[in-house]
Amino acid sequence: MKYISFATAAFAAMMITGAAYAADHQVQMLNKGTQGVMVFEPNFIEAAPGDTVTFVPTDKGHDASSIDGMLPEGAQPFKGEISKPITVTIDKEGVYGVKCVPHYGMGMVALIVAGKPANLDQAKKVKQPGKAKKVFEELFAKVPAGN
Q1: What is the pLDDT of residues 91-105, one digit of tens each?
Q2: What is the pTM of this model?
């Protein structure tokens, strides 16, 4: 009986410790930022599995949604509501493509990289509209080599 209690306590401690090390990355949704108009800041986020990313509608009229074909295998797609914050839990290693639906063609996109970007080649093949193509080329260039 004591063994089970100790094992339960050890598991609980590991869960609490793991949660304590998880980070929440804040991303502003802006009409105008340091990189131009209609942007996420930052638009390149290095996270770890277990971290969260909160998209904050600093300026109204924006959302944050995952992009089809730009999620790690098994990761859950997400779709925020206009002018509402959304918090996404990063539960798989890989790259996550994010768009603001109304401003996607204007290049309002972001890239989250968590651990080894196993789906990077797949994500690069996704066709992007308008300025989003150029912005993603810049973001893909920031992915650490050797991952």
Answers
A1: 999 999 999 999 999
A2: 0.85
Q: Which of 9-18, 27-36, 114-123 has the lowest mean pLDDT?
A: 9-18
**Domain assignment present for 4:** no
Domain CATH code at residue 96: 2.60.40.420
Q: What is the pLDDT of residues 77-93, one digit of tens each?
A: 999 999 999 999 999 99
Work out how many domains the chain is built from and give that number. Answer: 1
Domain assignment present for 18: no
Residue 62 in any domain: the answer is: yes
Q: Is the dihedral of CA 46, 48, 49, 54 positive or negative?
A: negative
